[in-house]
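Minutes, project check-in
Item: structure for the 428-residue chain
Input as provided by the requester:
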Amino acid sequence: MSTAAHPPLLAPTPSQLTWQRDGLGVFFHVGVNTFAGLEWSDGTLSPEIFDPSDLDTDEWVRTAARLGARYVVLTAKHHDGFCLWPTATTDYSVASSPWRQGRGDLVRELADSCARHDMKLGLYLSPWDRHDPRYEDPAAYDELYLAQLRELCTDYGELHELWFDGAGSAGREYDWERIGELIEELQPQAMVFNMGPATIRWVGNEDGLAADPVEYVTTSADLNNYDEDTIERDAPRYLPPECDVSLRKGWFWQEGEEPKSLPHLLAIHDRSIGLGANLLLNIPPDRRGRIDPADAARVEELAQALEERFGRPVTGEILGQADGAVRVRLPEGTRLDHVELRERLEEGQRVRGHRVRTADGEMLAEGLTVGVRRIHQLGEARTLSELVIEIDGDEPVLEQVLVHDATGAPVPDLGDFYAASTERPDAG
Protein backbone atom coordinates (compact mmCIF):
# COMPACT_ATOMS: atom_id res chain seq x y z
CA MET A 1 0.00 0.00 0.00
CA SER A 2 1.11 3.55 -0.55
CA THR A 3 1.87 5.93 2.28
CA ALA A 4 -1.30 7.82 1.36
CA ALA A 5 -3.33 4.80 2.53
CA HIS A 6 -1.98 5.32 6.05
CA PRO A 7 -3.12 8.73 7.30
CA PRO A 8 -1.90 9.66 10.78
CA LEU A 9 -5.39 9.44 12.29
CA LEU A 10 -5.37 5.66 11.75
CA ALA A 11 -3.41 5.01 14.90
CA PRO A 12 -3.91 2.31 17.53
CA THR A 13 -6.04 2.81 20.58
CA PRO A 14 -4.18 2.30 23.87
CA SER A 15 -5.89 -1.10 24.19
CA GLN A 16 -4.77 -2.14 20.73
CA LEU A 17 -1.18 -1.14 21.41
CA THR A 18 -1.20 -2.97 24.74
CA TRP A 19 -2.45 -6.10 22.96
CA GLN A 20 0.21 -5.79 20.27
CA ARG A 21 2.97 -5.41 22.83
CA ASP A 22 1.71 -8.54 24.62
CA GLY A 23 2.70 -10.43 21.48
CA LEU A 24 2.04 -14.04 22.54
CA GLY A 25 -1.18 -15.72 23.61
CA VAL A 26 -2.18 -19.35 24.15
CA PHE A 27 -5.37 -20.92 22.78
CA PHE A 28 -7.20 -23.70 24.65
CA HIS A 29 -9.48 -25.79 22.44
CA VAL A 30 -11.48 -28.17 24.61
CA GLY A 31 -15.07 -29.46 24.55
CA VAL A 32 -17.13 -32.47 23.51
CA ASN A 33 -14.88 -32.83 20.44
CA THR A 34 -12.01 -33.70 22.78
CA PHE A 35 -13.88 -36.83 23.87
CA ALA A 36 -15.22 -37.79 20.43
CA GLY A 37 -11.95 -37.62 18.51
CA LEU A 38 -13.33 -34.93 16.21
CA GLU A 39 -12.23 -31.49 15.02
CA TRP A 40 -15.79 -30.37 14.27
CA SER A 41 -18.96 -32.05 15.47
CA ASP A 42 -22.47 -31.34 14.26
CA GLY A 43 -24.18 -30.49 17.55
CA THR A 44 -25.59 -33.97 18.18
CA LEU A 45 -22.91 -35.36 20.50
CA SER A 46 -24.25 -36.11 23.96
CA PRO A 47 -23.13 -33.67 26.66
CA GLU A 48 -22.61 -36.74 28.85
CA ILE A 49 -19.33 -37.51 27.07
CA PHE A 50 -17.78 -34.34 28.49
CA ASP A 51 -16.15 -35.62 31.66
CA PRO A 52 -12.51 -34.63 32.20
CA SER A 53 -11.17 -36.75 35.05
CA ASP A 54 -8.52 -34.43 36.46
CA LEU A 55 -9.09 -30.96 35.05
CA ASP A 56 -6.55 -28.39 36.23
CA THR A 57 -6.78 -24.91 34.72
CA ASP A 58 -3.93 -23.74 36.95
CA GLU A 59 -1.69 -26.11 35.01
CA TRP A 60 -2.95 -24.67 31.71
CA VAL A 61 -2.17 -21.12 32.78
CA ARG A 62 1.22 -22.04 34.26
CA THR A 63 2.10 -23.69 30.94
CA ALA A 64 1.13 -20.54 29.05
CA ALA A 65 3.08 -18.35 31.45
CA ARG A 66 6.17 -20.57 31.14
CA LEU A 67 6.12 -19.89 27.42
CA GLY A 68 5.96 -16.14 28.02
CA ALA A 69 2.31 -15.72 26.99
CA ARG A 70 0.49 -12.66 28.29
CA TYR A 71 -3.05 -13.85 27.52
CA VAL A 72 -5.07 -17.01 26.92
CA VAL A 73 -8.21 -17.65 24.86
CA LEU A 74 -10.69 -20.45 25.65
CA THR A 75 -13.25 -22.00 23.28
CA ALA A 76 -16.19 -21.19 25.54
CA LYS A 77 -18.46 -22.35 22.70
CA HIS A 78 -17.22 -24.02 19.52
CA HIS A 79 -19.26 -24.59 16.34
CA ASP A 80 -21.04 -27.59 17.91
CA GLY A 81 -22.84 -25.23 20.30
CA PHE A 82 -21.65 -26.96 23.50
CA CYS A 83 -21.08 -24.32 26.18
CA LEU A 84 -18.32 -24.65 28.76
CA TRP A 85 -20.27 -22.54 31.25
CA PRO A 86 -23.76 -23.18 32.71
CA THR A 87 -25.58 -20.78 30.41
CA ALA A 88 -29.24 -19.94 30.87
CA THR A 89 -29.73 -20.00 27.08
CA THR A 90 -29.49 -23.76 26.41
CA ASP A 91 -29.16 -27.09 28.20
CA TYR A 92 -26.36 -28.08 25.80
CA SER A 93 -23.64 -27.21 28.28
CA VAL A 94 -21.51 -28.46 31.13
CA ALA A 95 -24.63 -28.34 33.31
CA SER A 96 -25.88 -31.43 31.43
CA SER A 97 -22.59 -33.29 31.75
CA PRO A 98 -21.36 -35.56 34.55
CA TRP A 99 -18.32 -33.34 35.08
CA ARG A 100 -18.44 -31.81 38.58
CA GLN A 101 -21.86 -33.51 38.94
CA GLY A 102 -23.29 -30.99 36.50
CA ARG A 103 -22.31 -28.06 38.71
CA GLY A 104 -19.06 -27.17 36.94
CA ASP A 105 -18.16 -23.97 35.13
CA LEU A 106 -14.97 -24.28 33.10
CA VAL A 107 -14.96 -20.62 32.13
CA ARG A 108 -15.09 -19.68 35.82
CA GLU A 109 -12.26 -22.07 36.69
CA LEU A 110 -10.05 -20.64 33.97
CA ALA A 111 -10.93 -17.05 34.89
CA ASP A 112 -9.97 -17.77 38.51
CA SER A 113 -6.69 -19.37 37.40
CA CYS A 114 -5.90 -16.34 35.25
CA ALA A 115 -6.52 -14.07 38.24
CA ARG A 116 -4.22 -16.17 40.41
CA HIS A 117 -1.41 -16.18 37.86
CA ASP A 118 -1.74 -12.62 36.50
CA MET A 119 -2.80 -13.84 33.04
CA LYS A 120 -5.22 -12.00 30.78
CA LEU A 121 -8.34 -13.92 29.68
CA GLY A 122 -9.94 -14.11 26.26
CA LEU A 123 -13.03 -16.06 25.20
CA TYR A 124 -14.05 -17.65 21.90
CA LEU A 125 -17.80 -17.65 21.26
CA SER A 126 -18.55 -19.24 17.88
CA PRO A 127 -21.18 -17.31 15.91
CA TRP A 128 -21.98 -20.51 14.00
CA ASP A 129 -24.02 -22.90 16.15
CA ARG A 130 -24.74 -26.37 14.78
CA HIS A 131 -26.82 -27.51 17.77
CA ASP A 132 -29.44 -24.88 18.46
CA PRO A 133 -32.46 -24.95 16.11
CA ARG A 134 -32.83 -21.19 16.53
CA TYR A 135 -29.78 -20.77 14.30
CA GLU A 136 -32.10 -21.25 11.31
CA ASP A 137 -34.07 -18.16 12.41
CA PRO A 138 -31.54 -15.28 12.28
CA ALA A 139 -33.61 -12.92 14.45
CA ALA A 140 -34.18 -15.53 17.15
CA TYR A 141 -30.57 -16.66 17.08
CA ASP A 142 -29.29 -13.09 17.37
CA GLU A 143 -31.17 -12.84 20.67
CA LEU A 144 -29.67 -16.13 21.85
CA TYR A 145 -26.17 -15.09 20.85
CA LEU A 146 -26.46 -11.68 22.50
CA ALA A 147 -27.65 -13.36 25.70
CA GLN A 148 -24.67 -15.75 25.66
CA LEU A 149 -22.26 -12.92 25.00
CA ARG A 150 -23.79 -10.87 27.80
CA GLU A 151 -23.25 -13.73 30.24
CA LEU A 152 -19.61 -14.08 29.26
CA CYS A 153 -18.99 -10.34 29.32
CA THR A 154 -20.68 -9.92 32.73
CA ASP A 155 -19.72 -12.89 34.88
CA TYR A 156 -15.99 -13.50 34.39
CA GLY A 157 -14.17 -10.25 35.00
CA GLU A 158 -12.20 -8.18 32.51
CA LEU A 159 -11.70 -9.81 29.12
CA HIS A 160 -8.65 -9.15 26.97
CA GLU A 161 -10.02 -10.61 23.74
CA LEU A 162 -13.31 -11.80 22.23
CA TRP A 163 -12.78 -14.30 19.42
CA PHE A 164 -15.42 -14.43 16.66
CA ASP A 165 -14.38 -17.28 14.37
CA GLY A 166 -15.68 -17.02 10.81
CA ALA A 167 -15.98 -20.75 10.08
CA GLY A 168 -19.45 -21.71 8.86
CA SER A 169 -20.54 -18.08 8.62
CA ALA A 170 -19.95 -17.39 4.92
CA GLY A 171 -23.05 -15.59 3.63
CA ARG A 172 -24.54 -15.16 7.12
CA GLU A 173 -25.11 -11.77 8.73
CA TYR A 174 -25.30 -11.41 12.49
CA ASP A 175 -26.51 -8.37 14.43
CA TRP A 176 -23.05 -6.89 14.71
CA GLU A 177 -24.38 -3.44 15.60
CA ARG A 178 -25.97 -4.72 18.82
CA ILE A 179 -23.03 -7.02 19.48
CA GLY A 180 -20.73 -4.02 19.24
CA GLU A 181 -22.93 -1.98 21.56
CA LEU A 182 -22.89 -4.78 24.13
CA ILE A 183 -19.10 -5.06 24.01
CA GLU A 184 -18.76 -1.29 24.29
CA GLU A 185 -21.05 -1.37 27.33
CA LEU A 186 -19.45 -4.27 29.19
CA GLN A 187 -15.92 -4.91 27.89
CA PRO A 188 -14.79 -1.82 25.94
CA GLN A 189 -11.09 -2.65 26.37
CA ALA A 190 -11.39 -6.16 24.87
CA MET A 191 -9.87 -6.82 21.46
CA VAL A 192 -12.49 -8.08 18.98
CA PHE A 193 -11.20 -10.70 16.58
CA ASN A 194 -11.90 -10.26 12.87
CA MET A 195 -15.69 -9.99 12.57
CA GLY A 196 -18.19 -7.20 13.26
CA PRO A 197 -16.69 -4.40 15.38
CA ALA A 198 -13.23 -5.88 14.91
CA THR A 199 -10.16 -4.25 16.41
CA ILE A 200 -7.76 -7.03 15.33
CA ARG A 201 -7.82 -9.34 12.32
CA TRP A 202 -6.96 -12.87 11.27
CA VAL A 203 -3.68 -13.25 9.41
CA GLY A 204 -5.38 -15.41 6.76
CA ASN A 205 -4.03 -18.92 7.43
CA GLU A 206 -3.94 -21.48 10.25
CA ASP A 207 -0.20 -22.06 9.93
CA GLY A 208 0.84 -19.22 12.23
CA LEU A 209 2.71 -17.46 9.44
CA ALA A 210 2.62 -13.79 8.54
CA ALA A 211 4.48 -12.33 5.54
CA ASP A 212 6.37 -9.09 5.00
CA PRO A 213 4.85 -6.49 4.88
CA VAL A 214 2.63 -6.88 7.95
CA GLU A 215 0.10 -4.10 7.50
CA TYR A 216 -1.80 -2.73 10.48
CA VAL A 217 -4.20 -0.65 8.38
CA THR A 218 -6.50 -2.41 5.93
CA THR A 219 -10.00 -2.46 4.46
CA SER A 220 -10.36 -6.25 4.29
CA ALA A 221 -9.68 -9.54 6.04
CA ASP A 222 -10.12 -13.19 5.17
CA LEU A 223 -13.17 -14.80 6.80
CA ASN A 224 -11.97 -18.36 7.42
CA ASN A 225 -9.73 -21.15 6.16
CA TYR A 226 -12.43 -22.95 4.16
CA ASP A 227 -14.21 -20.32 2.04
CA GLU A 228 -13.04 -17.64 -0.37
CA ASP A 229 -15.17 -15.02 1.39
CA THR A 230 -13.53 -11.89 2.71
CA ILE A 231 -14.71 -9.19 5.08
CA GLU A 232 -14.72 -5.87 3.26
CA ARG A 233 -15.01 -2.53 5.01
CA ASP A 234 -15.98 0.85 3.59
CA ALA A 235 -12.96 2.61 5.03
CA PRO A 236 -9.52 1.61 6.29
CA ARG A 237 -9.20 0.50 9.90
CA TYR A 238 -6.24 -0.06 12.18
CA LEU A 239 -6.45 -3.87 12.47
CA PRO A 240 -3.20 -5.58 13.47
CA PRO A 241 -3.11 -9.32 12.71
CA GLU A 242 -3.11 -12.33 14.97
CA CYS A 243 -1.55 -15.59 13.74
CA ASP A 244 -3.32 -18.66 15.11
CA VAL A 245 -1.78 -22.13 14.90
CA SER A 246 -1.96 -25.35 16.89
CA LEU A 247 0.95 -26.97 18.66
CA ARG A 248 -0.37 -30.18 17.09
CA LYS A 249 -1.83 -30.91 13.70
CA GLY A 250 -5.40 -30.57 14.98
CA TRP A 251 -7.04 -27.97 17.19
CA PHE A 252 -8.60 -30.41 19.67
CA TRP A 253 -6.55 -33.04 21.47
CA GLN A 254 -6.53 -36.26 19.47
CA GLU A 255 -5.01 -39.54 20.57
CA GLY A 256 -1.88 -40.40 18.60
CA GLU A 257 -1.07 -36.87 17.43
CA GLU A 258 2.25 -35.32 18.34
CA PRO A 259 3.37 -31.72 18.74
CA LYS A 260 5.18 -29.88 15.98
CA SER A 261 8.97 -30.03 16.07
CA LEU A 262 10.96 -27.43 17.99
CA PRO A 263 12.56 -25.97 14.80
CA HIS A 264 9.08 -25.67 13.23
CA LEU A 265 7.71 -23.84 16.28
CA LEU A 266 10.70 -21.49 16.36
CA ALA A 267 10.14 -20.69 12.68
CA ILE A 268 6.49 -19.94 13.45
CA HIS A 269 7.64 -17.55 16.19
CA ASP A 270 9.92 -15.72 13.79
CA ARG A 271 7.26 -15.55 11.05
CA SER A 272 4.62 -14.12 13.41
CA ILE A 273 5.99 -12.26 16.42
CA GLY A 274 9.23 -11.66 14.54
CA LEU A 275 7.35 -9.88 11.74
CA GLY A 276 5.25 -7.66 14.01
CA ALA A 277 2.10 -9.81 14.30
CA ASN A 278 0.72 -11.50 17.41
CA LEU A 279 0.90 -15.28 17.84
CA LEU A 280 -1.91 -17.34 19.39
CA LEU A 281 -0.55 -20.86 19.92
CA ASN A 282 -3.10 -23.59 20.63
CA ILE A 283 -2.20 -26.08 23.38
CA PRO A 284 -5.22 -28.40 23.61
CA PRO A 285 -6.00 -30.03 26.98
CA ASP A 286 -6.48 -33.80 26.86
CA ARG A 287 -9.36 -35.97 28.13
CA ARG A 288 -8.12 -35.66 31.68
CA GLY A 289 -8.34 -31.88 31.40
CA ARG A 290 -4.56 -31.69 31.64
CA ILE A 291 -1.78 -30.72 29.25
CA ASP A 292 -0.54 -33.82 27.42
CA PRO A 293 2.97 -34.72 28.73
CA ALA A 294 4.42 -34.65 25.19
CA ASP A 295 2.97 -31.18 24.64
CA ALA A 296 4.21 -29.97 28.01
CA ALA A 297 7.70 -31.22 27.19
CA ARG A 298 7.69 -29.47 23.80
CA VAL A 299 6.47 -26.24 25.38
CA GLU A 300 9.33 -26.45 27.89
CA GLU A 301 11.81 -26.96 25.04
CA LEU A 302 10.32 -24.00 23.20
CA ALA A 303 10.46 -21.78 26.28
CA GLN A 304 14.09 -22.69 26.87
CA ALA A 305 14.99 -22.11 23.21
CA LEU A 306 13.34 -18.67 23.21
CA GLU A 307 15.26 -17.78 26.37
CA GLU A 308 18.51 -18.91 24.75
CA ARG A 309 17.80 -16.82 21.66
CA PHE A 310 16.26 -13.67 23.15
CA GLY A 311 16.64 -13.84 26.92
CA ARG A 312 19.78 -11.65 27.12
CA PRO A 313 19.03 -8.62 24.94
CA VAL A 314 21.46 -5.76 24.59
CA THR A 315 19.76 -2.40 24.11
CA GLY A 316 21.42 -0.10 21.64
CA GLU A 317 21.72 3.62 22.31
CA ILE A 318 19.95 5.60 19.60
CA LEU A 319 22.29 8.48 18.86
CA GLY A 320 20.03 10.30 16.47
CA GLN A 321 17.99 10.12 13.30
CA ALA A 322 18.70 12.19 10.21
CA ASP A 323 17.83 11.81 6.52
CA GLY A 324 16.11 8.48 7.19
CA ALA A 325 19.13 6.96 8.95
CA VAL A 326 19.19 6.00 12.65
CA ARG A 327 22.62 5.62 14.26
CA VAL A 328 22.77 3.10 17.09
CA ARG A 329 25.71 2.66 19.46
CA LEU A 330 26.35 -0.76 21.03
CA PRO A 331 28.60 -1.55 23.96
CA GLU A 332 32.13 -2.14 22.71
CA GLY A 333 32.65 -5.69 21.49
CA THR A 334 28.98 -6.65 21.32
CA ARG A 335 28.47 -10.01 19.61
CA LEU A 336 25.15 -10.39 17.83
CA ASP A 337 23.35 -12.59 15.35
CA HIS A 338 19.84 -11.12 15.67
CA VAL A 339 18.69 -7.50 15.40
CA GLU A 340 15.31 -6.48 16.81
CA LEU A 341 13.69 -3.19 15.79
CA ARG A 342 10.69 -1.55 17.47
CA GLU A 343 8.73 1.24 15.85
CA ARG A 344 6.93 4.06 17.62
CA LEU A 345 3.26 3.36 16.82
CA GLU A 346 1.31 5.91 18.85
CA GLU A 347 0.79 7.99 15.70
CA GLY A 348 0.32 4.94 13.46
CA GLN A 349 2.44 2.53 11.45
CA ARG A 350 4.86 4.53 9.29
CA VAL A 351 7.90 2.44 8.39
CA ARG A 352 7.44 1.16 4.82
CA GLY A 353 10.95 -0.23 4.30
CA HIS A 354 14.20 -0.58 6.23
CA ARG A 355 17.79 -1.74 5.99
CA VAL A 356 20.22 -2.70 8.75
CA ARG A 357 23.85 -1.81 8.00
CA THR A 358 27.19 -1.72 9.75
CA ALA A 359 28.80 1.66 10.35
CA ASP A 360 30.80 1.26 7.11
CA GLY A 361 27.70 0.51 5.05
CA GLU A 362 27.68 -3.29 4.83
CA MET A 363 24.12 -4.63 4.51
CA LEU A 364 23.19 -7.03 7.31
CA ALA A 365 19.42 -7.33 6.79
CA GLU A 366 16.52 -5.61 5.06
CA GLY A 367 12.75 -5.73 4.94
CA LEU A 368 9.57 -3.72 4.63
CA THR A 369 7.43 -3.06 7.73
CA VAL A 370 8.74 -2.95 11.29
CA GLY A 371 5.69 -2.41 13.50
CA VAL A 372 5.61 -3.37 17.16
CA ARG A 373 8.69 -5.54 16.65
CA ARG A 374 10.78 -6.86 13.77
CA ILE A 375 13.43 -9.52 14.34
CA HIS A 376 16.16 -10.23 11.80
CA GLN A 377 18.30 -13.34 12.02
CA LEU A 378 21.69 -12.53 10.52
CA GLY A 379 23.56 -14.94 8.33
CA GLU A 380 26.41 -15.16 10.84
CA ALA A 381 27.37 -13.71 14.20
CA ARG A 382 29.19 -10.39 14.16
CA THR A 383 31.02 -8.29 16.73
CA LEU A 384 30.03 -4.64 16.32
CA SER A 385 29.91 -1.38 18.23
CA GLU A 386 27.56 0.54 15.91
CA LEU A 387 24.63 -0.05 13.57
CA VAL A 388 22.91 2.20 11.06
CA ILE A 389 19.21 1.58 10.43
CA GLU A 390 17.84 3.18 7.25
CA ILE A 391 14.06 3.63 7.37
CA ASP A 392 11.61 4.72 4.69
CA GLY A 393 8.16 6.19 5.23
CA ASP A 394 6.19 9.24 6.30
CA GLU A 395 8.17 10.55 9.29
CA PRO A 396 8.85 7.08 10.74
CA VAL A 397 10.40 6.73 14.18
CA LEU A 398 12.25 3.80 15.73
CA GLU A 399 11.84 3.80 19.49
CA GLN A 400 14.18 0.93 20.36
CA VAL A 401 16.88 -1.26 18.84
CA LEU A 402 17.90 -4.50 20.56
CA VAL A 403 20.49 -7.07 19.56
CA HIS A 404 20.75 -10.71 20.59
CA ASP A 405 23.46 -13.34 20.59
CA ALA A 406 21.82 -16.76 20.02
CA THR A 407 25.05 -18.65 19.39
CA GLY A 408 24.48 -22.32 20.16
CA ALA A 409 20.69 -21.98 20.52
CA PRO A 410 18.26 -24.16 18.52
CA VAL A 411 17.73 -22.85 14.99
CA PRO A 412 14.33 -22.16 13.34
CA ASP A 413 13.54 -24.42 10.40
CA LEU A 414 10.31 -24.93 8.44
CA GLY A 415 11.77 -28.01 6.77
CA ASP A 416 9.05 -30.26 8.18
CA PHE A 417 6.31 -27.73 7.46
CA TYR A 418 2.84 -28.89 6.50
CA ALA A 419 0.04 -26.48 5.72
CA ALA A 420 -3.21 -26.60 7.65
CA SER A 421 -5.95 -28.19 5.58
CA THR A 422 -8.35 -25.88 3.79
CA GLU A 423 -10.93 -28.69 3.55
CA ARG A 424 -13.65 -28.49 6.18
CA PRO A 425 -13.18 -31.09 8.92
CA ASP A 426 -16.78 -32.25 8.39
CA ALA A 427 -16.46 -32.62 4.60
CA GLY A 428 -17.44 -36.01 3.21
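Outcome recorded: The longest strand covers residues 374-393.
No further action items on this chain.
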